[in-house]
């Protein structure tokens, strides 16, 4: 096994988390695209809200969702980045398409006629006892992304085949319709020789789906990104994963359960974002800090990290 320990070069060292001047490769992200309202309550904690309350706080509305969030960061590394998602047909649709154009992303959106776009509300309350505020994420349950279909995916088969890497995430597994679409996209990618990266979210997916519904995507993936405690709970292993030793103890179980040689990028630490163990059966074993801490904005950090890791991974493959 090729065992590499820090301070050897890691994705955080190179290419880093802020993009590269020499953008290469092609990435296609499939996921959800929504309008998201974000607000931070600097002086109010959720536990203090016992009746109706007006709070003035910094707030913004942005085009977000798993696909566009990752694509926005990936555009700083990859020469060509596309977004495939099912969206609604309302006044927000041109706003969404305009944002993709502004970011230089290839628009593969499938518009569902007569349907409203999905809306997400993200609230974070005030810090307390030296800890970051708690995040409350409210996502519209019947948004168009839950109806992404196999037909939508087949229409984009040529784009999947032209990509170097297809990026998928676990939110699509929560609906039977989009779950089938996700699996179809992975099978098309496998047939066309496109590498598959799978982000295992939401972080409580183990409470929403049985492992049997998640395993097919894990077995098709070339890269799996996950918080280590999420995988531990999914496969009914001890879920205390704040330290390196606990995460390394999880690795043999992952190799037994998931056939093949996916590259596991396992996040761990106090908030499951401070460190990564990169592992591949009979290959790489690399542990590195991400640079995340109390003074770093959490929103978007995971996408910055993932985009840099995917570029690093493709560069390592190309150098062989």
UniProtKB/TrEMBL annotation:
Superkingdom of the organism of origin: Bacteria
One Pfam family hit: PfkB
Positions of the Carbohydrate kinase PfkB domain: 61-253
Protein name in the entry: Carbohydrate kinase PfkB domain-containing protein
């Amino acid at each position: 096994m090729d065992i590499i320990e820090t301070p050897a070069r890691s994705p955080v060292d190179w290419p880093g988390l802020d993009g590269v001047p020499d953008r290469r490769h092609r990435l296609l992200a499939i996921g959800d695209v929504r309008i998201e309202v974000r607000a931070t309550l600097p002086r109010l904690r959720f536990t203090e809200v016992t009746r109706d309350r007006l709070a003035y706080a910094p707030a913004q509305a942005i085009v977000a969702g798993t696909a566009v969030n990752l694509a926005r960061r990936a555009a700083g590394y990859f020469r060509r980045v596309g977004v495939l998602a099912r969206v609604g047909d309302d006044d927000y649709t041109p706003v969404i398409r305009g944002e993709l154009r502004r970011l230089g992303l290839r628009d593969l959106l499938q518009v569902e006629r007569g349907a409203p776009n999905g809306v997400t509300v993200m609230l974070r309350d005030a810090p307390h006892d030296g800890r970051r505020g708690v995040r409350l994420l409210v996502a519209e349950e019947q948004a168009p992304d839950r109806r992404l279909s196999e037909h939508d995916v087949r229409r984009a088969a040529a784009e999947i085949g032209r990509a170097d890497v297809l990026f998928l995430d676990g939110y699509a597994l929560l609906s039977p319709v989009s779950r089938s679409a996700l699996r179809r996209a992975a099978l098309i990618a496998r047939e066309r020789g496109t590498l598959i990266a799978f982000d295992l979210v939401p972080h409580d997916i183990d409470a929403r789906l049985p492992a049997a519904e998640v395993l097919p995507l894990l077995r098709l993936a070339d890269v799996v990104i996950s918080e280590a405690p999420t995988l531990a709970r999914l496969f009914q292993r001890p879920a205390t994963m704040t330290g390196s030793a606990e995460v390394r103890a999880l690795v043999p179980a992952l190799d037994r359960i998931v056939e093949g040689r996916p590259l596991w990028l396992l996040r761990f630490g106090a908030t499951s974002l401070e460190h990564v163990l990169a592992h591949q059966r009979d290959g790489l074993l690399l542990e590195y800090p991400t640079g995340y801490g109390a003074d770093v904005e959490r929103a978007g950090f995971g996408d910055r990290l993932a985009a840099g890791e995917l570029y690093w991974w493709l560069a390592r493959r190309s150098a062989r």
